[in-house]
Amino acid sequence: MDHRNAVRRLIAPVVVALGLGTLGVAGVSQGADDAWPAATPKAVCGPGSLPETSWQGRVPQADYDSGRAAQGYFCNTKQVAHQGSSGGFKVQRYTDPSGHTCAFYDSTLVAGRDILSNTLNGSGLGVQVLDMSNPAAPVKTASLVTPAMLSPHETLLVNPARGLLVAVMGTLATLPGVMDVYDVKTDCRHPKLLSTSPMGILGHESGFAPDGKTFWSAGIAGTLAAIDLTNPRTPKLLKLQTGVVYHGVRLSPDGRTMYVANIGSPSATGISGGGLRILDVSQVQDRVRNPQIKTLSSLTWRELSIPQVAEPFTKNGRKYVMEVDEFIDLFSLKGLTSMKTAPVGAARIIDVTDPVHPKIISNLRLEAQQPERRDAEWSDPGASFPAQGYAAHYCSIPRTNAPKLVGCSMILSGLRLFDISDLAHPKEAAYFNRPLTKAKGAVILPPAIGSWAMSAPAYDAARGQVWYTDGNSGFYVVQLTNGTAALLK
């Protein structure tokens, strides 16, 4: 079978289904002297590991044929628990005032994909609520099935300050952007619906001011909505900005500076100029009448694909963001003709101490994401599917002050953990990957096998554990071993 022709037939419906539209994205061009970032030094696997058999991040066809892939790939990790059979884009962790610790995760990648299979196997629909009192035996206490929670896409967030769980009905196919707000402070095991409203206009991704009073709904159809949640029972629209194509938005501790995963600027020829955009949103935070949003700077990079999110943190008095790109340069369709020319953005650490002059200081990449490896990987299961492949999707950090670890969902390569103690020289610390090796039945989108690790991980630092979901196999509790748990302290 000609895989490239197969991908060409798939690309249009997949792009629409993922809520990314049909816009074209111009490739990012930098100077010829700019070197492509090198792969991050790979982890040294200690006792009890079951390492990868090929280069860093790869699961080759030969491992499926031999049965090796079914055993999984573990480096300085071990599985503590598993729940459900599907997952989405976010895992959120929250401990309520009574001491109950809960996990919240969306159970589907796109609207409708897992409804039949999750109904038949009992995994549950919508956002799953787990009592994590004993992480080795998660107990499902609720399934949230209000409109936004059925298909939150990438919007699901919890605000610890106020104990609010919020999501917007995601993707372009699920207009007009219904937003659900839940109280999880009273008892996180049994969230209480406070409001359902149309405030999350064209929602796709989101952001939360740390004080929990402003929720931001980013719609890549060209909108950014600021929503007042001072009274979560009656959300109010504060600001609607149009003509922007934003993905995840994250905010500084005071809520006045926004770090935007900017997909790019729309024009008659498509979208261009993507990367990191830093905005002054102080007038929204201060509740100024008719607030204005000011662009402070924009930054791009040669290997840019689709910017996903930029998580802010600090260290030694300086400010940084942990930025991650998803997929390949999907809209320019470079990957349909030659995998070597398809940019895989992966992830990077950016110094934003001076918000007008941000600077990339290091990159986090796998060998499987490097241009020279791409053609050899094309026939690996899932590698030729543009919304899967050897690419990144989400990264998250366990804390905002001097984190030593970052966890990234890197789709076919699973959960990857990087040691960022030295911000300029990150190195891989551990990984955990459980590819699905047999088709599990009714799914709408391919591929039927392989990993689909897409979620932003959550962390239990006290126990040295990471929680994440794989779209093809569900929710996992992963224990860090061989000393790597110390990186969460």
From TrEMBL:
UniProt superkingdom: Bacteria
Protein name: LVIVD repeat-containing protein
Originating species: Nocardioides jejuensis
